[in-house]
Amino acid sequence: MNLHEQLGALEAGVDQLIQAVVAPQAQNIPETGNENAPQEASADKSVSAAKTAAEQTQTAGPQAGAAEEAAAPAAPLPTLEINRPAQNEITMTIGGQTVALRPEQVGKLIEELSNARASMTPEPPPGIPPGWRFVSTKNPVMAVQKQSNGDRLLVMRHTGHGWVPFTFSPDMVIQLYMMLTNK
Predict the structure, then answer these.
(1) Which end of the chain is more exposed for a tag (fewer CB within 10 A), N or C?
(2) Closest by CA position to 110, among listed 9, 3, 4
(3) Could you tell me which residues belong to the region Disordered (predicted)?
(4) Long-range contact list for 3-12, CB < 8 A, 24+ apart?
(5) In this structure, are residues 69 and 61 in contact, taking their beta carbons and an 8 Å threshold?
């Protein structure tokens, strides 16, 4: 899947999720709104969420996006709150509108966000950040394919992220083998 397909898929998925929230809020924001209004944040569950000028530019074209950006006042970003009311349910609240997601919908959202994040800058940090929280999968299901250029595609099934693909050059395969068998 190329970059444009990834962005298109992400945009379609995220648009469905936030369409009912961001669009009505944008229509209800007065032109002289307070840009410095504080936003609520809950521990590590809330993050700012809104379409960026870059996404608007990509869908409307660079000149239209720049014109909209110059003409529209900066609006406060709606907050995104994520909660887990039940084991098999996640709720996302954006600007007061709550949507409940089932496991398959959460998986689709993770996939779309992951595909988009892969093309964004800055890249994730090269080292493991202090305090990073994660869930590891012991003995994951794996599949390997040899590519025509000699690379190896390794796909591993993570319990939270789903199927995660990695491509290794022959040199990296040797390094990985050495790392895994080093005592």
Answers:
(1) C
(2) 9
(3) 29-73
(4) 3/119, 6/115, 6/116, 6/118, 6/119, 7/58, 7/116, 7/119, 9/112, 9/115, 10/112, 10/113, 10/115, 10/116, 11/55, 11/59
(5) no
| This prediction's pTM | 0.54
153 membership: H or E segment, kind and range? strand 152-158
pLDDT tens, position by position, 32-60: 433 333 333 333 333 333 333 333 333 44
* Tokens 């994520």 sit on residue: 82
- Name residue, tokens 């909209």: 68
Query: Per-residue pLDDT tens for 84-121?
Result: 999 999 999 998 899 999 999 999 999 999 999 999 99
For position 81, what pLDDT does the model report?
A: 94
